[in-house]
Design goal:
This protein is mainly α and 80 residues long. It has helices at residues 6-21, 43-55; strands at 31-33, 62-64. It contains two helices and two strands; from the N terminus they run αβαβ.
């Protein structure tokens, strides 16, 4: 169930984007999921997405929630 695999999905997607921009000077800044859709996205899923981006060398990202409701539980204030 891909919806229950945030780390793996973000990793594979971002690898594709990195390949697409390789050599262009563009920087990938991903939008990450912060809402439930077919799977509950809580702190574990939020942190998994951020870790996937970090593991690929990305330190910046944005979160998307159409209802503009964000749960701070998925964010570590001591870690950028």
């Amino acid at each position: 169930d891909p919806k229950a695999m945030p780390y793996e999905i973000v990793t594979e997607s971002l690898k594709d984007f990195q390949l697409a921009v390789d050599g262009t000077g563009a920087r990938v800044v991903p939008w990450l999921q912060h809402f439930n859709l077919g799977h509950v996205y809580g702190p574990v899923e939020i942190m998994a997405q951020m870790q996937a981006a970090r593991d690929l060398g990305m330190e910046d990202w944005m979160f998307w929630n159409a209802a503009v409701r964000y749960d701070a539980g998925g964010f570590d204030p001591l870690r950028r």
